[in-house]
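Hi P.,

Sorry for the delay on this. The queue was packed all week, but I finally got your sequence through. Input first:
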Amino acid sequence: MPPLLLFLFLVSCSLTAAAVTTSDSLQLELLRLHAPAATRLDYLRGLFHSDHLRQRSIVQRIGQRHIRRRTLAASDNTSSAAEAAAVQDSFAMPLSSGAYTGTGQYFVRFFLGTPAQRFLLVADTGSDLTWVKCRPRGRGGRKGSAAGEGRVFRPESSVSYSPIRCSTDMCKSALPFALATCPTPASPCAYNYGYSDGSTAKGVFAKESATITLSKGGRRRKLRGLVVGCTTSSVGASFRASDGVLGLGYSGVSFAAHAAARFGGRFSYCLVDHLSPRNASSCLTFGPTPALAVPPPRTTDLVIDPRLQPFYAVRLKGITVDGDLLRIPARVWDAGRGGGVILDSGTSLTVLAEPAYSAVASALSRRLSTVPRVTVDPFDYCYNWTAAAAAMVPKMVIHLAGTARLEPPEKSYLIDVAEGVKCVGITAAPWPGVSTIGNILQQEHIWEFDLRNRRLRFLRSTCRS
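Then the structure:
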């Protein structure tokens, strides 16, 4: 990659929660991609629809845990101790990010292969596989058309690309959604991802390297031995806005596990307001998070539950509205009793299992009973918003295990859907079932996932770099 071109993609990420010099860490810049839809309501309707499809997919995947193949622990990795020690010495990775689409997700710029090829990937804590749209040598079609629109990875152009054979133990027991078919021992390990909205991603697994840039000195290094998917066929709306997925889920084959193992066992992100201008950005960081040093963050257990993997779960004690603890059965928060709560960067609106949704939505609506209601499909509770209504907004607090409290800004649960109209931005999921804290409720907070110590730390921030 020419030095000038690389320079154009390098940016520094700093968060306004604290003015601290960045220590050894790996950083990728995040950009919120929101709708070029005709109206904001059209955009939010799209989010509502895609979130419900994703929630269905989450429930299906969790329900299939007992028949899935064994997944490697997140502490497992294939890199040498010498490489790990070298990277942990002083490395960080800032990458540029930026695009404008109609999805409700967050994206990173990612450099894969040797020499590096640049891609825009969905940053997804609910995925354990990193994959890119791909066209191996010999496949037909116009340039960029394989596996859908956008850029495609060319394996033959990368000297570090190494297919994983279907006869290996890794293919047979560790790789998510690997197919059992193995025509010959040397055949590549194939996968077929299926999503509840009908979207699919099909391809083969390989080992590959990513180019990272250090936060100290801007030096470039390689993360070797990454498990990636070369997706040769993708169908559906899930993938139109990106070139693939960056797997941040809890799994031995995820990018999060691989990179965190070399950068202090942790990663973090900070999501800008979901309605920010298209050029607003924030950071995905691997390694120490200096902005969490002052003031001290809220801390709770990061629950790694085999029943919920690859998703990250938290323990909820309850939800209060204006200080009143809502009557929600404890089993709703308990994965062992049909419930549980996950944080998911790929879901936009927060989705609560029906008993919790009814309690929260009713409590919010009672405190807004004097505000004129309006009908806005598909939301249940919407209001004609005025200055008088703004003075009546109830305060919602999510109480986590220990003393940690998530106190989201009002705009994260009473969302703007049109000029002068707000709706309760929380939706219902069937019970029994898992609840999902989406990225809108997570916005304007730094979230640090400490995989080594299984702790979740978070702190309010503007998330502006």
